[in-house]
Amino acid sequence: MNNYNKGGCENIRRMMNEVMHEYEKRISYEIDHFSRLKHYVQDRAAIANALRPYTSYREIGELFGGLDHSTIVHYCKQHERMLQSYPSYGQKFNDAMQITRRVSDRMAIKPTIKFGSHRNLQQELMIVENTIKNLRQLSRKIQLKLAGNEKAS
Description:
single chain, mainly alpha, Chromosomal Replication Initiator Protein Dnaa, Chain: A, 7 helices, about 70% helix
């Protein structure tokens, strides 16, 4: 059974809006949906990647004020690179995932798995495993840097 059988698109939209509201509350500012400033792009990409298992690129684009679905596809394709390049993005993604998980659990909405399409369970698992691997590498780099700073003090 997918999400649409348990309450329709309206439940998904309500979940997405709650995720956005809680995320903006956590970061203490409102996300500008059209700005190209790095922190806004990272916020949108983090939320888009956290919401992707639950809904379509188009619906995520609508959440961001009507962004084209191809922009959301781009955010998803750049996810691994952003995790490796920007520690701040890793934190934003972690926050977005925690909020999405909490809201989806509260609303009893499960991720939608599309078999036979370009996204399947194997791909989802690979993305999750790569994300974990990259976050562990980032954690080790930060730990080494912190250890080096403590020795220099």
